[in-house]
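Appendix B, Record 12. Input sequence as logged:
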Amino acid sequence: MPEHPIRERLDDLLARKEQARNPGSERSVQRQRDRGKMLARERIEYLLDDGSFNELDMLARHRNPDIPDRPYTDGVICGWGTVDGRTVFVFSQDFTLFGGALGEVYAEKMHKLMDMALKVGAPVVGLNDGAGARIQEGPVSLASYGGIFYRNVKSSGVVPQISVIMGPCAGGAVYSPAMTDFIFMVEDTSYMFITGPDVVKTVTGEDVSQQELGGASAHSKKSGIAAFTAPDDQAVLDDVRFLLSFLPSNNMETAPDLDSGDPHDRPTPELIDLIPDSANVPYDMRQVIEAVADDNEFFEYFSGWATNIVCGFVRLGGRAVGVVGNQPAAYAGVLDIEASEKAGRFVRTCDSFNVPLVTFVDVPGFLPGVDQEHNGIIRHGAKLLYAYCEATVPRIQVITRKAYGGAYVVMDSKSIGTDLAFAWPSAELAVMGAAGAVEILNRKEIAEADDPDAKKAELADAYGEKWLNPYIAAERGYVDDVIDPTETRAKLIAGMNMLVSKKEELPPRKHGNMPL
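Logged structural output:
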């Protein structure tokens, strides 16, 4: 009796799928291993919950039958699965096929994946390890990139988009990650740049390595491109899973609550001794953030770039919250061009995905200098101001020490729409510090004094006594309450619980004109 025709074809199907699962040559696979890199399929399996991956277009391959090598998958693995039980779409570029270079079929798979993620409202995680466009496909590969860029923008602010650079990412390929919400890089094995070292040397004469030009260190500390870095593939994928726990699946939802059992009314007495006796002595704002966070856990964003401001994610009473804080331990916590861009981008990202914001303020002002002015501190500082003014998520401000001048206003003050403003007794709300103020207000009196330095010190003390405190602002309602630092965590959680039902709408418009 002949075998059932479906059973006959099943054998053929299984053989094809086996080819698709192991398309790269032994040599190319071993090269990945020798570099300490996981294979494309292994990365997906590690990222997603066990057994949850569903592959799309596994049997897709180049359409030209005359090409001798037409491996299945065409160099990128696409599909969906779950992370902590929530749906996530993922693509993983396969460097063992064509060096991970993008062609027409490859791009169509990504287009389909991104369209589906937008339809169902789920994050997209891209595992990038490819050599850019396939030169032999000419303008087709370039147009294919355009389709990806278009979908990146269409998805922006609707579903979280996360790019993980796990190998090369060069030329036009860098612009898709650049338009996503978060970029991760693997130290020593990943790099991204527009033009490589050879072109740089030819054009400018500069001799630079791939890592020096576009490695994880360069982009996490100098360019402000990579928000997170990790030492190896496994560690970076662990961090991606952790980040996803702070984000909703889309802009119509909120991030999942994960209450660890840390008491909501836990006092924070360590904060009292954290503020130094002298206003000119630094302290670490990370310690403030960690003290109030659930289980003292803080996932920092751009930890190595624009270090005079600190941003990242915590949980407060189980709720995901974005935190921004001036960092007195770096340049006294001043706002400059890079700090404004870093914080402005973070605030807008949180607002896009309904993540509430807490802002810790200890800011002496904007960084003075010819370089800052000529490079556009006015325009760049306005980005942070714009981001806060535009944000409709619950917002709470906590002033720990200095809150001077326009920089205080920019740091989510009551006047630009924060919902609750608290201050510690150590807070100093004023147009400027005492020394600078008396030089302007009492210039003649100081100049005519027998001992100008002593007179200046006396007047500065008097100015400080009158103005450098939170109480005048509290009298006028610019601060809602002056609180004991030990109550900070409890006040923040109570405030967030009250604000959970906040509704606020911006005026009808196509979009605002942010000072880019």
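The chain has a mean pLDDT of 93.
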